Amino acid sequence: MRKKNPISTPVFSPCLRFTFYAVLVFTPFLLSAAPLLSTNLPPISPSLPDASFSLIRVFGALVLVLGLFLGGVWIFKNWQRVALHRGRAAQLEVIEMKSLGGKHALYVVGYQQQRLLLACSPSGVSLVSHLPADDSAPVASQAVGGENFMQALQNAVQAKAG
Q1: How far apart (Å, rounded) are the C-alpha atoms in residues 128 and 105?
Q2: How far is the C-alpha of 133 from the C-alpha of 63, rounded, in Å?
Q3: Is the pTM of this model over 0.85?
Q4: What pLDDT, in 10s, does the model give residues 121-161?
Q5: Which residues have C-beta within 8 Å of that of residue 110, sequence separation ≥ 6?
Q6: Average pLDDT of 62-89?
Q7: How far apart are CA 131 and CA 149, in angstroms?
Q8: For 148, phi and psi rounded to 5 degrees?
Q9: pLDDT in tens, 22-74
């Protein structure tokens, strides 16, 4: 059996041969039809249309898209505020806050008919004391005065110590 030398024998795939023959056969027809196709083109107008209306439309669309984007960002950031203000009054409210310096603070927080004294620090939030409920006014319109706050703080500290 005799081996064929792979270098001396050119190998063409059937697809490549078909493409070669198709180009060889159809090229004269395409070249002869080119002048016929060029006569059917519409004439080109020498003057261009006014671009001001197009610019107004483009900038209007840009403003609309940016407005939709910024509105979506605002709704995403404030969705809780939008959802809470549907006619229901807030039950949890910070009545008063007193900074103690640095990152330490005391808060008087009202929830329904309860009042709580909370201490906040970098390590967390802790309940200092339950304050007496004020039955004369609802928690939302109630405010702790300077003397009442100091008395409540002293009572809470004495209760914790004693």
Answers
A1: 12
A2: 53
A3: no
A4: 999 988 888 888 766 544 444 444 455 777 777 787 887 77
A5: 92, 93, 94, 95, 116, 139, 140, 142
A6: 83
A7: 10
A8: -65, -40
A9: 777 777 666 665 565 556 666 666 676 678 888 899 999 999 999 999 999 99
Tokens for 144? 């702790």
Give Cβ neighbours of residue 159 (< 8 Å, ≥ 6 apart): 129
Q: Which residues pair with 129 in a beta bridge?
A: 117
DSSP secondary structure of the chain: -PPPPTTTS----HHHHHHHHHHHHHHHHHHHHHHHHHTTSPPPPSSPPP-HHHHHHHHHHHHHHHHHHHHHHHHHHTHHHHHHTTTPPPSEEEEEEEEEETTEEEEEEEETTEEEEEEEETTEEEEEEEEPP-SSS-GGG----HHHHHHHHHHHHHHHH-
